[in-house]
Amino acid sequence: MKALRVFLGFVSVLAGLAIAGGVAFWLRPVELARDLLYMRLSLNGVESRSIVVGGHRMHYDASGPASGSAVVLVHGLGGHAEDWANLAPLLARAGFRVYMPDLPGYGRSEQPADFSYSVPDEAAAIVGFLDAMGLKRVDLGGWSIGGWIVELIASQHADRVDRLMLFDAAGLSEKPQWNTALFTPANAAELDQLDALLMPDPPRVPAFIAEDLLRASRRDAWVIHRALDSMLAGRDATDKLLPELKMPVLIVWGELDRITPLGQGNRIHALIPQSKLEVIPGCGHLAPGQCADKLGPGVVEFLRQ
């Protein structure tokens, strides 16, 4: 009888946890999904750490052997370190030490009120991260606005970049042909429009998840607005800097990208004589995340050269 009472008590606890989990998923599905992702990455050996850069806490993920050659990957606007969760394991298994910082204002890094969130200042933060980590020379990659950031770093600190990787990168002096306000969607319809820009055939988002995504968007909108204002001013375009790059450059582009269309990838390729362009069929702007299995082998081959 005692064993039965213990068993029933255990079942009661599990039921309570299940109900609590269901309520949490209904009320805050985005936070729960994020926490589950953190747990999965931790179980797979990804290290979650923080370091102080410029007086502010900067979070980063790291994976791969400590003795491996350093690869630093920079996410895009509104992104976070975990955006590289599908590509990073391929590089780690190939023997590279992969660092994925959260830019100031994003992910688990601080959101200082006195920071500009401009491309040059984010680039300076990444250089500060390299300094704080003692990384003298690295292979450097950036996705979308992260690509713009690493273009500036490669131009201004060429002695620190062995190889450069640009994934669906921004940076050219071309005005977006889509509504940039969609990066801070105000309603479910705008969220759907943003998803359609980011990926081909986006999945349907349930209403309760959409509402939580919109809540997060409202919370972080001031950072995105400040960043976009700086980017759209056109002061920091890299058109004239790209031809001066001397290190090997790999350009990876989703064939169906609507945020930074393939034409921009072709133009960057033309501006960097020693660059190699790889177009990933059937993929959009989120290629490094959604199509990592397609582009990963080419990235590993490039880094091993």
Kindly describe this structure.
With 305 residues, the chain is α/β, with parallel strands linked by helices. The chain has a single domain, classed as Alpha/Beta hydrolase fold, catalytic domain (Rossmann fold, 3-Layer(aba) Sandwich), CATH 3.40.50.1820. It contains ten helices and eight strands. It has an eight-stranded mixed sheet with strand order 1-2-4-3-5-6-7-8, sandwiched between helices. β3, α3 and β4 form a beta-alpha-beta unit. α4 packs across α5. It is globular. The N terminus is likely disordered.
Topology:
Blueprint: H1 2-27, H2 29-43, E1 47-53, E2 56-63, E3 70-74, H3 88-93, E4 97-101, H4 119-133, E5 138-143, H5 145-156, E6 161-167, H6 188-198, H7 207-232, E7 249-254, H8 262-271, E8 275-280, H9 287-290, H10 292-304
Parallel strand pairs: 3-4, 3-5, 5-6, 6-7, 7-8
Antiparallel strand pairs: 1-2, 2-4
